[in-house]
Write a structure and sequence with these properties.
Shape: globular
Family: Belongs to the alkB family.
Pfam family, one: Forkhead
Strand order of the largest sheet: 8-18-15-22-13-10-9
Main location: nucleus
Largest sheet: 7 strands, antiparallel
Helix content: 10-25%
Keywords: Dioxygenase, DNA-binding, Iron, Metal-binding, Nucleus, Oxidoreductase
Distance between the termini: 39 Å
Subcellular location: Nucleus
CATH architecture of one domain: Sandwich
Bound molecules: 2-oxoglutaric acid, fe (ii) ion
């Protein structure tokens, strides 16, 4: 996929000038995969041209940044545990574990290959991990995934915590000079570039000449204008529910005129699995702004190193990267820097295309009219009593059913989603099953998989796509509390120089609601939930309706993401590992 830089100055997605054609004779039949017409839509027409200055940063040659190529201080078992805890389902193939380690610990990108043996040995010998063998009924071959044994989760957490503390202790030694420098910066400077939200575990930062002043919050700022956030430990292993937002301000005056340019690559911690992008590149608009400011930078590799953004000190870059800057906080910073500039309109042709996944017109009246095609939102889809009953049922789930990730926890019902098929287990609790039947009424294919996610206030999920295993329709019932589900332009996960991805809007998912997402919103965009304590409902929310201007505090939210895996391998016998 060719990546396209979208200038942050772009004024939203005004598609009224769209001139692309949808070939009505194309394969838009009623089969489940008959969405080929989508590829006929010239989406580039929707986007602004790449400016020549920016274009030259699209393909930087590789840059070696010494500071993060040191061997991590941690054990293989900790790195493996981190990979598994950061995966969407808590289960990964060994190749995905390698990928995660390479992404998070760049030392391994060029290390002698023996480290992979060490990972494998660790997986087989370390009692913290278990193998889940999967027999493919179609071709008879076996493959396997690894997960953390449910009885070892506490032990693994303790080991990770020990690691975090060790790194935190190292950090204590060398921050004074930076803090002094940071406290002298003036947050009211007219040279302010942008403001963005970080999570509190971060420490004040200095990026090779660009310093960020961390302050506790806007309101606290006024009473305590030069407060410095106490040195904190990296957020990588921290629980996120105690977060409160911190703003940071970059001052233009502190951006050096000859930017020391570094290359950075950022991978999402939450979504490393075969079916999801493993190493999408995310660049913050703040960062791109500074890049754009210096288009004539002699060094063509004009990308800011996120590792340096986290911590300019090589010592701290070792091992604990990149989640030290919490995934979603960077996303939040991108959003805050680039407020959505509507309105968003979509060509009528796209709005009336056939919906192969949806049954008849049942959902038509629920279509969110100013969202991209196609999204349907039904408020109060379930009653209060049903919500309570579902919450009770989910809370009754045995503890080991929950996979605890860094920024949320989840339960998979329905089996293991492999690369292409579902190794089905009929383990749906009765109310979840009823709900699935009810939602299936709107679909041409019945739902066969339920993912239950629990988010505490301040937790979220990284921008991602749901991968090819599922049919292209997501249905989500929200209970307990609302959230805002954000949508972003897609990007090329394999392209290190991939451009800034841009938020295109969001959906308010109120408790008891059902949202159905298909077509381009499902296929061409990423979705995610920012780690926030509250949401402000502005015009970027497609279904804001009468709630514009509301500020809604988040509470514990449970989402039931109900989907259909096209191919199923039935039979519990195909699963090993005692997960049934
Ligand atoms: O919780 C939600 O609404 C979104 C969950 C999601 O996108 C996922 O698990 O893939
Ligand atoms: Fe998703």
């Amino acid at each position: 996929m060719e990546s396209t830089f979208i200038d942050e100055g772009d004024s939203g997605w005004d598609l009224t000038s769209y001139t692309g054609n949808i070939n009505s004779n194309s394969n838009s039949n009623s089969s489940f995969t008959g969405l080929d017409w989508i590829s006929k839509v010239d989406l580039s027409k929707f986007r602004e041209e790449i400016t020549p200055d920016i274009q030259k940063y699209k393909k930087p040659s590789p840059v070696k940044v010494e500071s993060y190529e040191k061997k991590p201080s941690s054990s293989y078992s900790n790195m493996v545990a981190l990979a598994l805890k950061n995966s969407a389902t808590g289960q990964l193939a060994v190749s995905d574990i390698y990928t995660f380690i390479c992404e998070q610990f760049p030392y391994f990108r060029t290390a002698p290959p023996g480290w992979k043996n060490s990972v494998r040995h660790n997986l087989s010998l370390n009692k913290n991990f278990q193998k889940i063998e999967i027999k493919h009924e179609t071709h008879g071959r076996k493959s396997c995934l690894w997960s953390i044994r449910s009885d070892k989760i506490a032990k693994v957490d303790a080991e990770l915590e020990k690691w975090r503390e060790k790194e935190g202790a190292e950090e204590e030694h060398d921050t004074v000079e930076e803090d002094e420098e940071i406290s002298s910066s003036d947050p009211t400077s007219s040279h302010k570039i942008s403001e963005y939200v970080y999570t509190p575990r971060e420490r004040p930062q200095k990026i090779k000449g660009i310093s960020c002043k961390s302050i506790t919050s806007k309101t606290e700022q006024s009473s305590k204008s030069s407060s410095i956030v106490s040195k904190s430990r990296p957020a990588i292993l921290s629980r996120t529910n105690s977060k409160r937002p911190i703003s940071s301000v970059i001052h233009e005056s502190e951006v050096p005129s000859a930017t020391p340019t570094l290359c950075w690559k950022y991978s999402y911690g939450s979504h490393v699995s075969p079916s999801r992008p493993v190493s999408p590149t995310l660049s913050s608009l703040n960062i791109d702004r500074s890049v754009k400011r210096f288009p004539s930078t002699p060094n063509k590799n004009a990308h800011i190193n996120l590792f340096d953004l986290i911590s300019p000190n090589p010592k701290r870059n070792t091992g604990l990267f990149p989640n030290a800057l919490n995934d979603n906080s960077l996303l939040a910073c991108t959003l805050a820097a680039s407020p959505y500039k509507g309105p968003t309109t979509f060509p009528p042709a796209l709005m009336t295309e056939s919906q192969p996944m949806l049954k008849g017109d049942k959902l038509l009246s629920y279509r969110v009219s100013n969202a991209p095609p196609s999204v349907y939102y039904i408020p109060e889809f379930i009653s209060k009593d049903e919500e309570d009953a579902l919450l009770n049922e989910i809370d009754m789930a045995p503890k080991p059913k929950w996979e605890v990730l860094l920024n949320r926890k989840l339960i998979n019902y329905g089996g293991i989603v492999g690369k292409k098929s579902l190794f089905a287990i009929d383990d749906f609790p009765p109310r979840v099953r009823c709900l699935m039947l009810r939602v299936s009424e709107y679909l041409t294919r019945p739902l066969n998989h339920a993912l239950v996610n629990e988010y505490l206030p301040g937790q979220g999920i990284m921008a991602h796509t749901d991968g090819p295993s599922f049919l292209p329709v997501i249905t989500t019932v929200t209970i307990g509390s609302h959230t805002v589900l954000d949508f972003y332009d897609s990007f090329d996960a394999n392209d290190v120089s991939s451009p800034t991805k841009k938020r295109r809007g969001g959906l308010l998912l109120e408790r008891r609601s059902l949202v159905v997402i298909t077509q381009s919103l499902y296929q061409d965009m990423l979705h995610g939930i920012c780690e926030k304590m509250q949401d402000t409902i502005d015009e970027s929310i497609w279904n804001a309706k009468g709630r514009l201007g509301d500020v809604i505090s988040r509470d514990r939210r449970i989402s039931l993401t109900l989907r259909t895996v096209d191919k199923t391998n039935n039979g519990v016998a195909s699963l090993l590992g005692g997960r049934v």
